[in-house]
Amino acid sequence: MLSFPKPVSSNCRMQKRKTWVAQDDQALVREALEGKQKAFKLLMEKHKNAVQHVILKLVRNYDESLDLVQETFVKAFSSLATYKTKYRFTTWLYRIAANSSIDYLRRKKIEAFSLDQPRQTEKGEFEIEIPDRTFDPEKDFDFKQRELSVEEAIDSLPKRYKEVILYRHKEDKSYEEIASILHLSVGTVKARIFRARVLLKKKLKHMR
Fold first, then answer.
1. What is 1-118+126-147's CATH number, 3.40.50.300, 2.40.30.70, 1.10.1740.10, 1.20.140.10?
2. pLDDT tens digits along 96-141
3. Rounded Cα–Cα distance for residues 189 and 167 (Å)
4. Looking at the whole model, is its pTM more than 0.70?
C-alpha cells in the first residue's frame, strides 16, 4: 500500500537531497516499476512541492491543494506503467496534477450550481439566483500548461542563452543593461537573444 512521507529533520532532508542528485527521475521510475516503493517515495519527495505549486495556481486554496497533491501521487503511482520515457517525468506528473485540479473544480462548480435548483417550501416554490462569477478551469488550465511549457523550455536552454532570455523577458532589462551585467557587447546580447528565441520556438513546438 502506498504511504506518504512524514516530516523529516533538516539532516535527513540533506541526506535525501544527495540521493536525489545521484538518481535521476528515469532511474527512479524504472526502480518503482520493479516494485521498489522507496524509489517512488523519492520521486514524491523530489516533486511534491512543485506539484503543489501547479495545483495552487488552479485551485487557489492551500488546504485543498494538500489533498490534491496526495491524489496526484496516488494516480501517478497507479498509472506509472503508462509513463513514456521520451517525455520528461515532470511534464507527465504536472499534467496529472492539473487534471486532478480541474476534476476537483468541476465537481465544486456542479455542487455550487445545485443551489440554482428550485426550492420547495410550505408557501410554494422559489429559486436562489446566484451570478456565475467562476472562472473557466479548462481555459485556465490551458494557460497554466502553456506557462509551464515555456518555463520548462527556458530552463532547458544552455546557460548563455537562458540568462539573456531571463534578463530580457523576465526582468524586462534593456540590451544595454544586459550587456553591462554580463560584460558583453550589445551585439553579442542581441545575437544570443535571437538564438535563444529560435531554440525556444523549436522546443515549444516539440512539447505540443
1. 1.10.1740.10
2. 998 898 888 888 775 554 445 554 445 454 444 444 444 455 555 5
3. 10
4. no
Q: For residue 75, which of 97, 91, 108, 53 has the smallest C-alpha distance?
A: 97
Q: Which CATH class is domain 156-208?
A: mainly alpha
Distance from the Cα of residue 190 to its chain's centroid:
31
DSSP label at residue 27? H
Residues in the chain: 208
Cα Dmax for the chain: 81
Angle at 48 between CA 75 and CA 52, to 5 degrees: 90
- Using DSSP's 3-state secondary structure scheme, residue 174 falls into coil
As a whole number of angstroms, the distance between CA 162 and CA 153 comes to: 9
What would the DSSP string read from start to end of 61-84?
Answer: -HHHHHHHHHHHHHHHHHTGGG--
